[in-house]
Design brief:
heterodimer; A: 227 residues; B: mainly alpha; globular
Amino acid sequence: MDAWSRFLDTFFKRELIEQYLPSILKGMLVTVEIALAVVITGIALGLALAVVRAWRLLPVNALIVVFVDAFRALPPLVLVLLVFFGLPNVGINLPSFAVLWVVLSLVLAAFAEEIFWAGILSVPKGQWEAARSTGFGWLATLIYIVLPQAVRLTVPPLTNRTVAITKNTALGTVIGVPEILNQATTGQSFSGNATPLMMGAIAYVVLFIPVVALGRFLETRFAWRRA
Amino acid sequence: MDALLQQFFNLEIMAKALPLVLAGLRQTVVLCLVVIPLGLAGGLLFALVSLSSSRATRWSMIAAIDFFRAIPPLVLLIFVYSGLPFAGIRLSPLAAVAVAFFLNTSSYYGEIYRAGIESVARGQWDAARSTGLTVAQTLASVVLPQAIRNVLPDLVSNTVEVVKLTSIASVVALPELLYSADMARSITFNTSPIVLAAAIYLVMLWPVVRLVSRMERRIAS
């Protein structure tokens, strides 16, 4: 057997592709579901925290900063293991996909809060004052004047961060969430061949290349320039 | 409440797990000393290639960077560690981590360097070249110092991400901080060792996270 066909036989074996395609596709569905859930709850919570922070209540803000810093400093895998193994021992039983969803949502919320907050701070004070003096309430000013300007600036960094965090759904394999990587490694150990793993890698590229490219496009389009 | 304390903040168990966890910490530090310089150097290389004047070179580098940014690092690591042996390439856990991290972190660092280099005004190049500096000299003494200063917060914040990412080495049985803590957890049936590891990550990274926030705010204002 020449090198090329040996390569194909190791990574692209026809029968195995056919055999494992359904489970990889099922894994893709699980990955997409968890990723979407994480994006929605994570960004919503992050935005909510940034809005609360704009209230500038000192003790509340201190709590938000502590939460944000801790979830930016801790590796997601540490949090996943902590929640997955810790909670059952105190009587709380969450299914593994819920653990992954909660942990990644909190991590995304922390990063999103920081990005939204930077966006809110970047809107000049005069905008607040002008809006308030025309009779807008505090909340109305935030919603109609400040956030629309702030959010524009946050789109590129938020997109990139969101992509990076949703890729962490692969960590779910460690606690047995049946997402792509889990299906692929299971397939690999059953078949004794690297084809399912290659399929898993390709599945991730198919899912994430479009969002990475979108992030690249947004970066040039919105040009988050600092200098 | 008592059960919670027993389960997460059991000092007795933490004390017992401490030697193992500290040995893990040492491995994590070693790992960082391998993968961070590798990523910083690889990233510079990726950035320079992605700014090449040949269109074909430029686009293939950008495609490769996006490819490695699209694949979750854990997938890449497992592929390198347990997929490549099928093709006869068997790497130790440390070597597998080094290879996978090189590809992943160089892509992220590369994008940051590239943004930095692009932020330096074109006139700087022209001026430096017209005073007789070579391309390499211009890059090393004129452009890069300014580029790196402009993207320093991003470089530091990505380095925090890399340090956090070393925790996935536990999946390929490299006995770093998280692996050791998880081992202690499975021996003691208690989550406190992982809380201890989390506390160590916090102590190491919190100051840097604060620093990044302040650097970002200073540049924004």
